[in-house]
Each structure stands twice: as C-alpha cells, then as structure tokens.
Amino acid sequence: MTTKKQIALKYMDYLAKGDSEEIIKLFNENGIVDSPIYGIMKADEFYHQLTNDTNNSELELKGIFEENDSNKLALYFGYRWTLRNKEEVEFDVVDIIEFDSLNTIHKLKIIYDTTVARKLVNKLKK
C-alpha cells in the first residue's frame, strides 16, 4: 500500500503540474476539499474550477507533518499562483489531508491568508 507521505508528494507534484485528473484519482469517491476561497466542494469540482482559474502554479515544499497512528497529514508549502488573467499572488499554505482506511484522500482542508488571492479570484468572475 502506498504511504500517506508518498500520496502527499504525488499530490504536490500533480498540483504543480496542474494535473487535476491525477489529483482527483488520489481522492475517494466522496472526497471533498474545504477551501477558504472556493468553499466546500467535491474534489473533482474543486480541482476543475482551480484548473480553470489557473495559468501556472509553483510550489515550494517546506515540510510534511504526520501524527503517529492518525489518518491525517499536513503539508506546508509556498505557493506562487498565476491566475488565467496573468495576475500573480504568492502565499504560504497548509493543507491538512485526511485519509480513509485505504490511504485515499477523504478530505483536504486548505489554510492560507486569502486577503490578496480572494480579490484576484473575484476579478476573474467579473
């Protein structure tokens, strides 16, 4: 069985590449994402929306934190996000990943300061 850490590293790789289809495969069929900008969505809906809004993503992994005997893992990384309109924002992110018993992602909670990012994403909707 693939470890939680291996899955988290695959997630980071796919996110950097903008490969939403591969990211979605890491989730179970009921997988959800809780995002400070997009809200709570099914994983496939969230990653398709993110891909639609994104021109490029650059990630810098700063740490992986695991609890022993837990179904959770946290990723800490820097994120440089270029939106489809070429505007760019950079921030630190913590993704808390909750796994099911098969080590597929059941829930991913994204935590970051949305002050600048929210304004830029809202401009995309106008």
Give an overview of the whole structure.
With 126 residues, the protein is of the alpha+beta class. The chain has one domain: Roll (Nuclear Transport Factor 2, Chain: A). Helices cover 33% and strands 45% of the residues. It has helices at residues 4-17, 20-25, 43-53, 115-124; strands at residues 27-35, 39-42, 54-66, 72-83, 88-99, 105-111. Strands 2-1-6-5-4-3 form a 6-stranded mixed sheet. Strand 1 (27-35) and strand 2 (39-42) form a beta hairpin. The longest helix has 14 residues, at 4-17. It is globular, with a radius of gyration of 14 Å. The model has no long low-confidence stretch (mean pLDDT 93).
- Return the average pLDDT rounded to an integer: 93
Spans of at least 5 consecutive residues with low confidence: none
How many DSSP-defined strands?
6
The side-by-side strand order for the widest beta sheet comes to 2-1-6-5-4-3
Beta-strand residue fraction: over 45%
Task: Sketch the major β-sheet.
Answer: 6 strands, mixed
Shape: globular
The string of secondary-structure elements, in order, is HHEEHEEEEH
- Give the CA-CA distance, first to last residue: 45 Å
Q: Number of folding domains?
A: 1
What's the gyration radius in Å?
A: 14 Å
Oligomer designation: single chain
CATH top-level class = Alpha Beta
